[in-house]
Design goal:
five-stranded antiparallel β-sheet; 16% helix; 5 helices; 41% strand; 17 strands; 316 residues; globular; disordered N terminus; 2 domains; six-stranded antiparallel β-barrel; alpha+beta
Length: 316
Amino acid sequence: MRLLVPLACAILACAKPPDLRLALRLDPHQVLLIGAELQSVDEPHLARYPKSPLHSDLQPGESIYLFDHAAPWRRGDRWQLYPETRVRIDQLGVITYCGGIGGYEIAIARADHPLQADVFVGQSSRPARGLQVAPASLATITLPPADSAKLTALLVREARDIVKAEDWMVLPGEPAEHADRIRRANRSVLSGALPPPQLRVQRWTPRSGSPLLFIEAVWLAPNGDPLFACDAIFFQGAATVQRWFSARKAERMRESFGSNDWSLDSRSPFLAAYEIEGRPYVLLYEEGYEGFRVSLQELVPLKGLVPTGITFGAGC
């Protein structure tokens, strides 16, 4: 099932910075600029056009058909990717996903220097208006034991606010063995009898604010069974304050216990951070059951991460 743009984008005022696009690395010297999403694609009609043999790690198995179209860019246009990399558009085309039920307008651009990241935020070198974009690296850190314990306690409190009963995420008609595993995991959260979590913490200090901690946490039972997982963003300071919390990973655990490795060796959901016009934005990677989405989201006080509409998703 494809990940859909959250309804929050329709309910909240989405602050979409103009003239920005996502770009996915195709190889060490080429990127895929992502344009408008297409609601449907006539794939039999596209079959007359040549296909690119390249695929991004974040665009696996999708078809790229190459032809000129009316996207708001042209061959030869220059783009600026953040961190600092310039690219020149060589080809235009369309990506299709899930057998042609939808797709995106795209451009393939060549970089001036070898590319390191998998995904970038890009801006036309001739934008309608200039945007001040300041990218930042997320530095992985190890917290002192006392700070780690304090943070874990805050995360467990948030988890217990979500898991309010042992039947949380137990669906009607669930096989008995699967339902029992879900209930055991939920009881461990409700009772507070969770073992220490695996933690991955990254820090970013915006120019215009306090340091932020980007946190991933996974709790596993001694036998390896998954118990809970979450992603969160906190202020770091005298008082550690939550800015955003997501239990989507815990929901996915309960949808399918055995199909995933829940250790923290996988791709982080926090791909990059930016200050755009002095406001903090996060490049977020979200997995679904049969797909994923990369999106640029603004970190808004009292609201958390708010979608901007700058996004790319793949899968059915």
